[in-house]
Automatic annotation (TrEMBL):
Gene Ontology CC entries for this record: membrane
Manganese among keywords: no
Record's protein name: Oxidoreductase, short chain dehydrogenase/reductase family protein
PANTHER family linked: DEHYDROGENASE/REDUCTASE SDR FAMILY MEMBER 7B, DEHYDROGENASE_REDUCTASE SDR FAMILY MEMBER 7B
InterPro entries (alphabetical): NAD(P)-bd_dom_sf (IPR036291), Sc_DH/Rdtase_CS (IPR020904), SDR_fam (IPR002347)
Keywords: Oxidoreductase
Pfam families: adh_short
Family in the record: Belongs to the short-chain dehydrogenases/reductases (SDR) family.
Keyword Oxidoreductase carried by entry: yes
Top-level taxon in the UniProt lineage: Bacteria
GO molecular function: oxidoreductase activity
Length: 225
């Protein structure tokens, strides 16, 4: 028997996902933290529990469809309902299009597109009573950008997925929110020299606060930074 409303957040060990986890926990949700790095997820879990909240960690690579199936099967077996799913995990590989390898393309699409699509499909039956799916896209899903070909293509795909679901589920109790934001100061840029100094960009906390607030009554959130 689960008394708290539950929220599943991918990429919850850092950046924007971590801020979503802290905010939804403060709002009284039991937060399910998903990502590949258990240490990062554990640190967020500890922070939530120290503040009196509740969180469960799920170490999962969203590039593996069978891992998504295992996670959601365990939710089904435990009678776990979800009222929020935040498809936040994402990667970016930047540079001239001619340098992009098949591996770059496959890794980007399996993380940014197939992962959210398969997870959403598997989570919808867990949102029987009501639910909101928030897809974290990017302004790269609104317009093409130089040296961002594969990233933009993946985020346009996530946008198309979200907008289509908004129409297909219009009459249902599940809502689909598309969130588009510009650059943020997060670990996203750590292994890349594409943005050498992200320190001038907004912190993810303020972006997460705006998304959590606006997702209650909007289906499209655009935050140009
Ligand atoms: N930072 C920006 O300027 C910016 C701007 C617009 C949009 N965004 C979008 O915002 C979202 C969050 O990014 P962020 O800026 O907060 O960067 P971040 O701190 O790097 O967060 C991305 C998260 O995704 C997780 N992740 C990556 N690959 C994964 C996989 N295969 N399976 C499971 N989890 C995976 C990572 O966790 P693990 O390493 O533990 O797996 C990480 O916690 C992304 O979708 C990104 O595209 C970012």
């Amino acid at each position: 028997m689960f008394l708290l409303k539950s929220c599943l957040i991918t990429g919850a060990g850092s950046g924007l996902g971590k801020e979503f986890a802290l905010l939804y926990s403060q709002k009284g949700y039991h937060v399910h933290l998903a990502g590949r790095n258990t240490d990062k997820l554990s640190a967020v879990q500890q922070e939530i529990e120290k503040a009196g909240g509740a969180a469960t960690i799920h170490t999962i690579d969203l590039q593996q469809p069978e891992a998504i199936e295992r996670l959601t099967a365990s939710f089904r077996e435990n009678g776990q309902n979800l009222s929020r799913l935040i498809n936040n995990a994402g990667i970016g590989i930047f540079g001239p299009f001619s340098d992009m390898t098949l591996t770059d393309i496959e890794t980007t699409f399996s993380t940014n597109v197939y992962g959210p699509i398969l997870l959403t499909k598997a989570c919808l039956p867990l949102m029987a009573e009501e639910g909101t799916v928030i897809n974290i896209i990017s302004t790269a899903g609104l317009r093409g950008k130089k040296y961002e070909t594969i990233y933009c293509a993946s985020k346009f795909a996530l946008r198309g997925f979200t907008e289509s679901l908004q129409k297909e589920y219009e009459e249902s109790s599940v809502r689909f929110v598309a969130a588009y934001m510009g650059g943020m100061n997060t670990p996203f840029w750590e292994d890349s020299d594409y943005v050498k100094d992200p320190s001038g960009l907004p912190l993810p906390k303020e972006i997460a606060e705006q998304i959590v607030r606006e997702a209650e009554d909007k289906l499209e959130i655009i935050i140009e930074t």
